[in-house]
Design brief:
This protein is of the alpha/beta class. It folds into 2 domains: about 50-125 and about 260-310, Periplasmic binding protein-like II (D-Maltodextrin-Binding Protein, domain 2); about 130-260, Periplasmic binding protein-like II (D-Maltodextrin-Binding Protein, domain 2, 3-Layer(aba) Sandwich), CATH 3.40.190.10. Helices cover about 40% and strands about 15% of the residues. It has 13 helices and 12 strands. It has a 5-stranded mixed beta sheet with strand order 2-1-3-12-4. A 5-stranded mixed beta sheet has the order 8-7-9-5-10, sandwiched between helices. It has a two-stranded parallel ribbon with strand order 6-11. Strand 7 (about 170-175), helix 7 and strand 8 (about 195-200) form a beta-alpha-beta unit. The chain is elongated and about 60 Å long. The model is unreliable at about 1-45 (pLDDT under 50).
Length: about 325
């Protein structure tokens, strides 16, 4: 009995010494490792982002090029601007793609969570209102006419204009998870609810519009450019304009097109300062955002604007 107790005590002592010297390993709970295999409290090399489906095509190209050059890639979700900010606030992501300005309540939530961030511009978009190529009567629309359509006041096209046909309107748009929805709601709807069939997948919004000559939809400029053979962009007359302006590279960059908007990446400062891989990724992003924006159908910023932002990196 005494011999058994002695051997047990000796064995426990040896295990304690080995654990103290080894500091733990992947199978040893004393190493305090998380599910990623990295010791807790250490800065990992992973890069995680989420947010706007509008900004995603730009970041997808950048991510592919970054992976080819640095043999690593970011994990980028497309949950939409609003849902992405929720993850960003929860500390789940290093960066947040957004197709609208950050809201006051989102700023407050980040402050409460103790998360500091830096705002970067990666390109410019023109929120495009479009109808089917088969639609032969809509040649332009005003903000007031768009409001009448998306508030539900106008049920048929003849309710919008007397010379439009008496056909029912089928209005489509991205749902509330998208910054595109929020931007349209603020700019056109005076912060009132957007009516119509609101869809999470923007590609489904596009296909719904292309398949029906009496439909109308709105989405990012690149979605229109990628479907020009089936869509017709509607020139839009803003409240401060005397004429309707068509979305083009030139009118979007100059903001003459009334639904032009900036595209953002919000980066967590802690990740920029403590994750060298992420800082390298963000510098690479700003160095390549112009070409990626143009390749995906958006409009690049002036070159000096990107350089100024690179100079802001810690």
């Amino acid at each position: 009995m005494k011999k058994s107790m002695f051997l047990s005590a000796l064995l426990m002592g040896i295990m304690f010494i080995l654990a103290a010297c080894g500091g733990g390993n992947a199978s040893d709970p004393t190493g305090e490792e998380d599910s990623s295999g990295e010791a807790s409290g250490e800065t990992g090399g992973s890069i995680v982002g989420d947010g706007s489906s509008t900004v995603f095509p730009i970041m997808e190209i950048i991510n592919e090029e970054f992976n080819a050059e640095h043999d690593m890639a970011a994990e980028i979700g497309v949950s939409g601007t609003g849902a992405g900010f929720e993850r960003f606030t929860a500390g789940e992501t290093d960066f947040q793609n957004a197709s609208r300005d950050i809201k006051e309540e989102e700023v407050a939530a980040l402050e409460e969570a103790g998360i500091e961030y830096t705002e970067f511009l990666v390109g410019t978009d023109g929120l495009t209102v479009a109808v089917s190529q088969e639609n032969d009567f809509v040649d332009s629309l005003t903000f007031d006419e768009l409001y009448s359509i998306y508030s539900g006041e106008a049920e048929s096209w003849s309710d919008v204009r007397d010379d439009f046909p008496d056909e029912p309107i089928k209005a489509y748009g991205p749902d509330q998870s998208h910054g595109t929805h929020d931007f349209f709601k603020e700019e056109v709807m005076n912060d009132e609810d957007v009516q119509g069939e609101l869809i999470q997948d923007t590609n489904q919004v596009v296909s719904s519009v292309t398949s029906d000559p009496n439909s109308i939809g709105f989405f990012g400029y690149s979605f229109y450019l990628n479907n020009e053979d089936a869509l017709k962009a509607v020139p839009v007359q803003g409240p401060d304009s005397e004429e309707a302006i068509e979305p083009t590279d030139e009118t979007v960059q100059s903001y003459d097109y009334p639904l032009s908007r900036p595209l953002y990446v919000y980066a967590k400062n802690e990740s920029l300062e403590n994750n060298e891989d992420f800082r390298t990724f963000m510098e690479f992003t700003l160095e390549n955002a112009a070409s990626a924006a143009e390749e995906t159908g958006y409009v690049a910023l002036p070159e000096e604007d990107y350089q100024e932002q690179i100079d802001q990196l810690p």
